[in-house]
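Thread amino acids onto this structure.
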């Protein structure tokens, strides 16, 4: 497979692909294989140099958000010890610029699931209902389109271990396929309007909407609050105060971390998820 160089950007490729933003990249040799939209991609980083298969360079540049000015973004982070520790641990992680429908649908399927389970579901859905793409001698699979999902029955999705999420994913896909909810149109709305429009979809509450906005619509101030983030904020910023409600934590997060709060959220999330498990 012929590779082209994308230079030496400030990027930790492995951490970025394994940080709970996306769930389908797999190790292949010295790199990672997956799909960027409907394009097969192989990504590899050696001694800081990022290389990608010929034909996927432009897609990879956009997907990996290599235009995000990380050093400038870091200057907006709070200076407290918790934020600084997360930054040092996650330096080089980028917020991916994912396909809009893929981000929405993936996080609909993520409800009450751990990262490994979400990945298993993603791979199953891709293999069964997504377009097969050739990457060298390997096959990878695009995420299924709204139309592909809309043609299914709920039982088809339940067979992929979605449980109650199957009904929500199917209903959401049918709304998008019918044009009743338009991801491209949502991209033109303000953050608040976009969140409200996303929450019209079954299975999309505030947290899932914010995940979709951050990872699919490039709203870098979006700050999803899941159980990990709520725990971090409660313990590290509220001193384990019992009076700290979920609502007050969300209100704090919406204003405390600046215009790139989504980056700070992902750094806090990934740092806590990998270090707190080890005590």
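Threaded sequence (279 positions):
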């Amino acid at each position: 497979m012929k590779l082209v160089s994308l230079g030496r950007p400030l990027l930790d490729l492995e951490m970025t692909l394994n940080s709970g933003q996306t769930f389908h990249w797999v190790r292949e040799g010295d790199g990672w294989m997956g799909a960027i939209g409907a394009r097969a991609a192989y990504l590899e980083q050696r001694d800081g140099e990022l290389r990608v298969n010929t034909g996927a360079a432009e897609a990879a540049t956009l997907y990996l958000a290599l235009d995000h000015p990380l050093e400038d973004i870091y200057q907006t982070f709070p200076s407290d010890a918790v934020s600084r520790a997360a930054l040092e641990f996650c330096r080089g992680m980028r917020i991916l610029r994912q396909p809009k429908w893929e981000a929405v649908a993936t996080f609909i399927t993520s409800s009450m699931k751990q990262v490994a389970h979400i990945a298993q579901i993603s791979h199953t859905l891709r293999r069964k209902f997504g377009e097969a793409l050739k990457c060298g001698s390997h096959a990878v699979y695009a995420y299924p389109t709204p139309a592909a999902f809309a043609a299914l029955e709920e039982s088809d999705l339940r067979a992929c271990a979605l449980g109650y999420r199957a009904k929500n994913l199917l209903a959401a896909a049918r709304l998008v396929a019918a044009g009743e909810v338009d991801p491209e149109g949502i991209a033109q709305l303000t953050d608040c309007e976009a969140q409200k429009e996303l929450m019209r979809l079954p299975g999309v509450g505030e947290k899932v909407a914010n995940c979709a906005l951050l990872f699919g619509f490039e709203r870098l101030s979006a700050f999803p609050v899941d159980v990990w983030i709520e725990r971090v904020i409660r313990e590290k910023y509220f001193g384990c105060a019992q009076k700290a409600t979920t609502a007050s934590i969300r209100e704090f997060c919406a204003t405390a971390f600046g215009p790139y709060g989504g980056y700070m959220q992902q750094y806090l999330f990934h740092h806590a998820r990998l270090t707190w498990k080890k005590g």
